[in-house]
Amino acid sequence: PPSLDTVARAKGMRFGSAVAWRPRNSEAYEVALPLDAALLDRECGILVPENEMKWVALRPSPTRFSFVRFDAMLAYAEANGIAMRGHTLLWHQPKWMPRWANEYDFGANPRAEGERLLVEHVRTVCERYGARVGAYDVVNETVNPADGGLYDTALSRAIGGTEATVDLAFRTARAAAPHAQLVYNDYMSWEPGNERHRAGVLRLLEGFRRRGTPVDALGVQSHLITQGSDGPGALQLQRDWRAFLDAVVAMEYKLVITELDVRDNNLPADIAVRDRAVADYTRAYLDVMFSYPQLRDVLVWGMSDRYSWIEGFEPRPDGAPRRPTVYDAQFRPKPMRAAIADAFAAA
Ligand code: G3I
């Protein structure tokens, strides 16, 4: 069958995936192509680094940058004619900043030092890659889903507020990478229980527009959890989700699906049943998303169950392996693949 990117391109869209360099053993980190490289070549028109562009990967210390892993990844993509997006210039939560940044001594003028550190980071990355990276998740997950408020970090306390901090990240990115699509990326989703998270994201997006912060798109991560895709509950979920997306596009943001995968939490262990449910849920979700012409790029968070982050994050209670991605652990296509292809064809 034609690749997922080929079916996407027929509709003026693109399909891609996150990619990670895997350690070959627990002792030494070795730059190695994941075993699913053939899948990436075959199916994807765009890639994003799963971890290799985060501060924790790029910034071993306040004075050093380490580009070796992402450089190799970008070279691989370019050699295969695949585009690259960047993730992420600022994951604005203490938990995901490097330890040195949380313990950093900002000195006598914390604001100036905080701004210097952030501007240096964003500028160094953006200027190094220039037009080779076409989009950036400039800021990732700074809205607290529990109350819709904004997280703060040692960095934002030094700078004097989270809004000022994320604005500075975007303004610096725009100046250093004027060609790039600048994205705010978060995991608010259509499942019930996400209301406060969505409201907080809308407030943040409104603030960007009010202050003239250069943000082009909302990254809709799309780490989904199957709920059953018919019945009145599903309809309500779709109505609420559409209301959210309508509000986002009314503010003239584009949309990007940045990290799609689907967890089946409450289904019996029968693999055929689980895979069918995941495929149907994916299709229902993409049909809604594809009704928005503001959406062009669709990226999954890994092509194969073999490497999915979900297994380590939330194993199934019954111990059965997770199956949240497009290909199984032996790199065989699952019904989710056909669901995505069909959704593109119907778009
Ligand atoms: O590489 C080391 C390994 O050497 C060490 O033995 C092991 C022990 O903990 O850790 C390994 O690093 C882990 C790394 O993934 C690579 O596997 C980190 O602990 C772990 O925290 C890290 O998790 C990543 C997570 O972001 C945090 O950065 C996941 O792979 C990655 O899928 C996940 O991606 C995020 C997006 O960036 C933002 N949206 C949500 C998404 C899922 O959480």
Automatic annotation (TrEMBL):
Its EC number is 3.2.1.8. SMART domains: Glyco_10. SUPFAM superfamilies: (Trans)glycosidases. Transmembrane segments: none annotated. InterPro entries: GH, GH10, GH10_dom, TAT_signal. Residues 27-343 form the GH10 domain. One of its GO terms (molecular function) is endo-1,4-beta-xylanase activity. GO terms for biological process: xylan catabolic process. Keywords: Carbohydrate metabolism, Glycosidase, Hydrolase, Polysaccharide degradation, Signal, Xylan degradation. PROSITE patterns: GH10_2, PROKAR_LIPOPROTEIN, TAT. Pfam families: Glyco_hydro_10 (PF00331). This is Beta-xylanase. The lineage of its organism: Bacteria, Pseudomonadati, Pseudomonadota, Alphaproteobacteria, Sphingomonadales.
